[in-house]
Amino acid sequence: MRLDKYIGHTTLLSRAESKKIIKKGVLVNGNIVKAPDFKIDELNDEVIVNEKKLIYQKYIYIMMNKPKGVISATEDSISRTVIDLLEEKDCIFEPFPVGRLDKDTEGLMLLTNDGNLGHQLTSPKKDVEKQYYVEVNGVLKVEHIPYLKEGIILEDGYKCKSAKLDILTSDVSKSTAYIYVTEGKFHQVKRMMKALGCEVTYLKRLSIGELVLDETLELGKYRYLTEQELKKLKN
C-alpha cells in the first residue's frame, strides 16, 4: 500500500495532509521516508508519525440512514451516491453499499469493504430478512397475508420468496404496514404492493438481519457499527 494512503487509513488526515507530513519525513521500520508513493506492508511494517505508532484497520463497517434522492452505488455521473455522503477519511477504505435501496427509498444502508460479509448478506441462498415500513395508496387486507407467505407472483410472472406482512393501518384509500422479505429483486417491495393493488408512496428499510437502524441517526448521517452489532451481523 502507498504510504500516503496508509496514513490516511490510520489517521484523520486527508491524502493531501498525509503527503505534507511525509515530505517532512516519516519513520518506516526505523528509516526516514519522504516519498508519498513509498510502498509498505500495511500488516507488518511499523510506521510512526509524530512519535505515534499507527495501527492499520483493514475493514470498515458503516450504518447510514439513507435519504431520498441518493442512489445505492459507489459512483454515478448524474446523481449523488451514498459514497458522496461519506467523509474523505472513510472513503479511503473504498466501502461499497451492501444491497440496494431505490433512489426514493429511505432507511438502513450498510456500507463496508468486507466483501465476504457483503456476499453473506446479499446471497439469495442465505435468506437474510430485511424489514421495511411502507405506506401505500390502496387497501391492504388480512387476506393478502397468505398470498405473500406463499410467494406472490409479480407482473412479469416471477414468483417471490415467502414474505411476511404486518398491517398497521388500513382504510378506504391508504394503508401502512411492515413487510419482511429475504430477497432484493429490482423494485421488489413496490412491485409486490402493486400486485396487491396498492401503490407505494413511502418506503423505509428498518433492518437487515440482526442489524437495526439507529433511529437517532438523521437522514444522510452515518456512524460505525458497534462491536456488538457487527458480531450479531456476522452470526
UniProtKB/TrEMBL annotation:
Gene Ontology biological-process annotations: enzyme-directed rRNA pseudouridine synthesis
EC numbers, comma separated: 5.4.99.-
A single GO molecular function term of this UniProt record: rRNA pseudouridine synthase activity
Stretches assigned to the RNA-binding S4 domain: 1-60
GO CC, one annotated term: cytosol
Keywords attached to this entry: Isomerase, RNA-binding
Entry-linked SUPFAM superfamilies: Alpha-L RNA-binding motif (SSF55174), Pseudouridine synthase (SSF55120)
Family, as annotated: Belongs to the pseudouridine synthase RsuA family.
NCBIfam families per record: pseudouridine synthase
Name of the molecule in the record: Pseudouridine synthase
